[in-house]
Design brief:
Elements: H1 2-9, H2 13-20, H3 27-38, H4 49-59, H5 65-73, E1 77-79, E2 82-84
Antiparallel strand pairs: 1-2
Length: 90
């Protein structure tokens, strides 16, 4: 899925292939960082840990560790026409 999104957004072929052939899960954060360096306006902005805790409490649930990491790093995002919901308005 991410490979399709990055290709649609026009990311370099090497980064697209890095996602398409992703064998090491930890590489995804490097790829996301590279994507948002090329497309800074597509990230909504970092979220503080306190905001995540408040949102979890208000919603009565716990976010996954991956989603928390995403929120801490990017806040939310738009990749091509696909929205990744976060705690920030784009």
């Amino acid at each position: 899925m991410l490979g399709r999104l990055f290709k649609k957004k026009g990311l370099s072929r090497s980064l697209y292939l890095g996602v398409k052939n992703l064998s090491n899960y930890s590489k995804i954060w490097t790829i996301l960082d590279a994507f948002f360096q090329q497309n800074p306006d597509d990230a909504a902005g970092k979220v503080e840990k306190r905001e995540i805790e408040e949102a979890e409490y208000a919603l009565g649930l716990k976010f996954s560790e991956d989603y928390k990491r995403f929120l801490l790093s990017y806040g939310g995002a738009l990749i091509g026409s696909d929205l990744v919901y976060g705690l920030r308005k784009q």
